Amino acid sequence: MRLITMNRIVLAAALLLALPATLPALAQGFKDTSMLRAPAGSPVAIYEFEDLECPACSHAFPIVHAAVDKYKIPLLRHDFPLRMHVWSFDAAVIARYIQDKISPRPPKSIAAPSSPARSP
Description:
Blueprint: H1 2-28, E1 46-50, H2 55-71, E2 75-79, H3 88-101
Parallel strand pairs: 1-2
């Protein structure tokens, strides 16, 4: 048992020592093929995948948009309706329509009520 642990430690140390020698070779052949890229002329962007009925998304909304306004970071928003939220898909469709027709900024999340299916 102890020999196996020592072998793992020695192997990890050898890999860590060899890693800096291989990094320049890896960096030269690297090509970013990801679909998530910042807009042209911007080094970074915030990608927001949001469910309008999600309480966590509702909590993050003012924080993310304050950072966007303060640091002038581009925001790329994507709808991500979750199945467990009954009205999230409909809310995403309506919000996208409103955003395209009326306002350039997405509406605030609607997660404040406990459930939109219940009526008071």
